[in-house]
Please model this.
Amino acid sequence: MQSEQPAGIFHFQKVIAIPQKSGQKVAVEHLSSEAIELLLKQPNAQSARGRRDLTLLSVLYDTGARVQELIDLRPCDVLLEGAAVITLTGKGNKVRRVPVLRDTANLLNRYLIEHGLEKAVEEPVSALLKQPAWQADKRRGRLYSQQTCHRGKEDFLGHP
Model:
């Protein structure tokens, strides 16, 4: 590059002289099977909130979806007949179809039916997060004028 544009040689040398980042990249540790099993046993499946948490955790684990992909999920993106598949829309509107295990499909199917979302509608499933967050906030005596998916996500993750 320096030989092609000699006028910029000073700038090219300055760029080349920038030191590279030091330090080793550390591998991201994953949860063991025992830890995953323990995590999925935590929600109380007898309560509505517990069923929601178990469903969300199972879908996140089974699909490897980002939280934003889960929030953007619509009932029409969920195919539960036959080989269950969820269509996720990720960063840059990249679409991927992910097969899910039968247990996860059953949890998701029961949850969608319980909340009247079993029809293949275009509305985002963020309603899965909004409604329980609203109810939780009302129980705490706080009623927010405008609920967001982030508020529901905070409730789901246990943040105040």
